[in-house]
Amino acid sequence: MDEFVFVSGRLCLDLVGTKLWRRSLRTELLTSPEAMRRWVRQAELLDDPGPLDVRAFERLRRLREVVYTVVTSWPPGDHPDVNVDAVLAEVNEAARLPLPKHQLDVSGRLTRTGGVDEVLGAVARDAVDLLSSAHFARMRECANPDCTRLFVDLSHSGARRWCGMAECGNKNKAASYRRRKKQATIEAGV
Ligand SMILES: [Zn+2]
What we know:
- The chain has a single domain (about 10-190), classed as Jann2411-like fold.
- It contains six helices and six strands.
- The chain has helices at about 10-15, 35-40, 55-70, 85-95, 115-130, 175-190, and strands spanning about 20, 25-30, 100-105, 110-115, 140, 150.
- Strand 1 (about 20) and strand 2 (about 25-30) form a beta hairpin.
- The chain is globular, with a radius of gyration of 18 Å.
- Zinc ion binds near residues 142, 144, 163, 165 and 168.
């Protein structure tokens, strides 16, 4: 099973989705620099990010959280409780970093090279592109109330409701309902 999923339609939102169930269980998938390496490769950002230290890892997790804050507080006028200027400044600073270098050889093989700066640059650039594009109006949170995964609905109908993970969506709606009902019963002490 793949460790990370890429169902958001945007790189920056796939990174945001490496922290799950943000309002309840708050489950962290980016648990170490090695996990960051795997995410970078699975995201097809770089062929090999090389050794990543704790500082690189913390920079990526910090960027993930500021991106989450900005995209869920946009446009700023609608969220007076959040200092959007400050977090947006962080995203913009990262968006000035270099991007991964893509090179094609004669056999048709693409190589992607760079390091942590290029990873952060690519994520932040995707975030500023998203916020300034028509795609942003199509950004949704998964309809599973426990799931906080964000995605851009690129369906023709514009009616996508679920992130697409196994625990979400119609197929498992009944199971999820039963689970919640059982939990509610336990909490009520009956
Ligand atoms: Zn979901």
